Please model this.
Amino acid sequence: MAKTVKLLQGNEACAQGAVYAGCRFFAGYPITPSSEIAEILAASLPRVGGRFIQMEDELASIAAIIGASLAGKKSMTATSGPGFSLMQENIGFACITEIPVVIVNVMRGGPSTGMPTAPGQGDIMQAKWGTQGDHPAVTMAPDSVGEFFTETIRAFNAAEKLRTPVIVLTDEIVAHTREKVEIPEPGEIPVEDRIKPSVGPADYKPYDTKFGDVPPMANFGDGYRFHVTGLVHAEDGFPTNEPDIIESQERRIIRKVEEAVPWLSKNEEFMLGDAEVALVAVGSTARAAKMAAEEAREKGVRAGVFRPVTLWPFPHERLKELAGSVKRIIVAEMNLGQIVGEVERSVCGSVEVTCLNQVNGESISPRSLCSAMVGEVQP
Amino acid sequence: MGRRTEVRLAGSGGQGLILAGVILAEAATIYDEKNAVQSQSYGPEARGGASRAEVIISDADIEYPKATELDILLCLTQESCDRYVQDLKPGGLLLVDRDEVNEIKAAREAEVKVVKIPIISTAKEKIGKALVANIVALGALVQITRVVTKDALKNAVLGRVPKGTEDLNLNALESGFELGREYKKT
Model:
């Protein structure tokens, strides 16, 4: 059967991926460069029996999607840095109450209002540590329009399987670029749903560890007693001051993500087989890196690219292995040094790590990356 | 690495250059079945301000989605010409609106191929709507460069423009082809 091929914008692909994954509720507040996601879902969700609400701000947006997910609908919001900052409190709430939601953050330049129409990658660490306390962090980082579609689906699947918020983190370039995408048929990409209780309401506990680290989740309103609080709670959902219970619940919500790493982790390795220099980059910067690696090879430098697609949990193990086969690692990012710290932690000084940063609102050019690899001095 | 053809359409916000970029990319991908990526850069304003769209066309996969060395540059304003002419590679094509762009940096004029045609006035006077200058420009650009086939461009225009404006846009496209043909004769 002939595939449906379309020229889609990144944000369009994200919206279509969300619907494919079963998203039936979106609440958001428009912000460049993510607004098209809301615009498209406002039109498409009602056609599939879903709901779209434009909220008064981003605090309300994330609160609404947490509520909708509790009621049983797969839910999403989309924003950029300023809105992502406002959402942090309730991201932590979704972590500890274990409510699956997807938050898309299309990064733009600068702190605060910054550069609305320009790309940046300044929210790498915020995606992990933006909300306070020890909490699980799962983040997907697509670098193309096609991948913005598939990673949005993977984000929903991970959120559902792990009962945790998942962030899709990309940048203005990926969001606003249009490219050719083959739209998968329904059923072609697996879609996961949360595990529902196998016990009756009388025996149900919303954080029952008898069923493993990811407790089954009843729909709020289906007759199951379900107490929801941001206070540390026991298996029944009510607050507790018992140190043993607190310790085990805290460790469990981290462990459920750590133990998912074998299926959750995903990297792209581009021409790394015989590479002496590895460029590490995510999102649109990785696309410049791939072109630069090809150019560096034409100049006689064996270069390759390592790209975390699952950014959090960070692929420390794979990078540690890579450090054994390359002579040098260059980390390229549109910020002043965030991923580089994680790379340094991974390789523990066993190989030279340098970084190439740019925060002027433009993407890092393949030429400057190539120069860094072949050791040319930039004019 | 496949051969990339890099095109930038530049002018000011509201001239429809991003839509023109989308149409060109659809002509290449959907109708000519090549690879293309389209991107854009614009300011926070809805109208006015510098605006540019880029389209990269290739038979191979396209890694970096932005232009590195332009093959073709369209400029509908003096400001965009001043700013971007340096990004055009030697031997590249600079297509400008004859009435809007009066001056081309002397150092570059000798290195690149310059084509000056009346894009906006053709849209205004011949078609009766300045709004379709983007389509006139695309017609001329494709007639001269054949960066996509003319059939693909026509199909892409019809696929993207609002219902009820098909004839208007096809007329604009034909006028663009005509401008390109006239230029080629000279």
Observations:
- Helices of chain B lie at 17-31, 78-84, 106-109, 119-127, 133-145, 150-160, 166-185.
- The mean pLDDT of chain B is 93.
- The beta strands of chain B are 4-12, 35-42, 50-58, 70-75, 88-97, 113-117.
- The first strand of chain B starts at residue 4 and ends at 12.
